Amino acid sequence: MFKDLFSLKGRVALVTGGSRGIGKMIASGFLAQGAAKVYITARKAGPCEATAKELTAQYDGECIALPIDMSTVAGCKLLANEFMKHESKLDILVNNAGAAWGSTFDEFPEAGWDKVMNLNVKSLFFLTQALAKPLRAAASAKTPGKVINIASIDGLSVNPMETYSYQASKAAVIHLTRRMAAKLIQDNINVTAICPGAFESDMNTAARDHGDTIAKKIPSRRIGTPEDMAGIAIYLASRAGDYVVGNAIAVDGGIVYANLSLPVSGE
Q1: Rounded CA separation 128/237 (Å)
Q2: CA trace torsion 54, 57, 61, 62 (10° rounding)
Q3: pLDDT for the residue numbered 75
Q4: What's the CA gap between 56 and 24, in Å, rounded?
Q5: Nearest to 166 by CA among 235, 100, 264
Q6: Can you tell me the distance from the alpha carbon of 262 to that of 267, in angstroms, rounded to the nearest whole number?
Q7: What angle do CA 243, 248, 251 make, to 5 degrees?
Q8: Distance in angstroms (rounded) separating the CA atoms of residues 120 and 71
Q9: Is 243 one of the annotated active-site residues of the chain?
Q10: Separation of alpha carbons 219 and 150, rounded Å
Q11: Which tens digits make up the pLDDT trace of 28-57?
């Protein structure tokens, strides 16, 4: 009954922003669990192709680079069309590509609002829409298709940093996940969200460059590892997560739900 509960054997996945950081962690985890093909996207061709080559050499499955700027609706449609030149079915879509912007309240620019909201929310929706055909083609009641949106704990609670558009965008992703889930479950497609806390990435430079300091503020007393991020993504993408619909799961070492009256300095 429980054999291959977390297996992704034979599945085809697409991970946006998959050349580095959280996207790369998820792509690696999928391949480690037997995914046949994992397509990754990034704006820059060089890093995208280098990561695809690295992961293909490391695992049995194949990692394929699709370096496309998906920050516009036209870019989303181009990415979907390029994917469909290779595949007619898509089992798993991970909407991970994102951007952040920090500025004081009085100086926060329109450009910092538009860039973040367009990529983090608008492109997430329109890429999923553009890939609806191969997602529906792969999905069945026995093996649901999966759309996994990468939100953030900043969409669940207030981060003191002045990243207004980022925090608003991630809250929007969480609610959009619920709305998309209510629609796409009718097509046997489960939509869920992951809300990461502190993981090393070029976006989260604090965790990347000052991990020991950040860890003192986390109930688990450490920052997230690639295994932590891959683990939750594998769970949602595999048979183990087939009955999870619309949820946004915090993966943060307890920052949001367990950080009650705890000393931040670790003493």
Answers
A1: 16
A2: 60
A3: 97
A4: 12
A5: 100
A6: 10
A7: 105
A8: 9
A9: no
A10: 22
A11: 999 999 999 999 999 999 999 999 999 999
Output the furthest CA–CA distance in the chain (Å, rounded): 58
Other CB atoms within 10 A of residue 220 CB: 15
Residues 6 or more apart whose CB falls under 8 angstroms from that of 85 comprise none
Q: Tell me which residue has tokens 């089992």.
A: 91
Token representation of residue 7: 């297996």
Closest CA to 158 of 267, 69, 83, 255: 255
Q: Which amino acid does the sequence have at 242?
A: D
- 62-66/92-95 β-pairing: unpaired
Contacts of 183 (CB under 8 A, 6+ apart): none
3-class DSSP state for residue 39?
A: strand
Q: Which amino acid is at 44?
A: K
If you search the block for the tokens 């965008």, which residue do you land on? 169
Domain ranges of the chain: 12-251
The rounded distance, in Å, linking the Cα atoms of 150 and 96 is 5
The pLDDT tens digits for 183-215 are 999 999 999 999 999 998 666 665 555 567 788
Please say if the pLDDT value at position 241 is more than 50: yes
Q: Which two tokens stand for residue 60?
A: 């049995």
- Which pLDDT score, from 0 to 100, does residue 259 have? 73
Q: What digits encode the pLDDT tens for the residues 105-123?
A: 999 999 999 999 999 999 9
Residue 262 scores a pLDDT above 50: no
CATH of domain 12-251: 3.40.50.720
Q: In the chain, at which residue ranges do the beta strands (DSSP E only) sit?
A: 12-15, 37-41, 62-66, 92-95, 145-150, 189-196, 248-251
Q: What is the average pLDDT score of the chain? A: 93
Choose the catalytic residue: 166, 235, 243, 257: 166
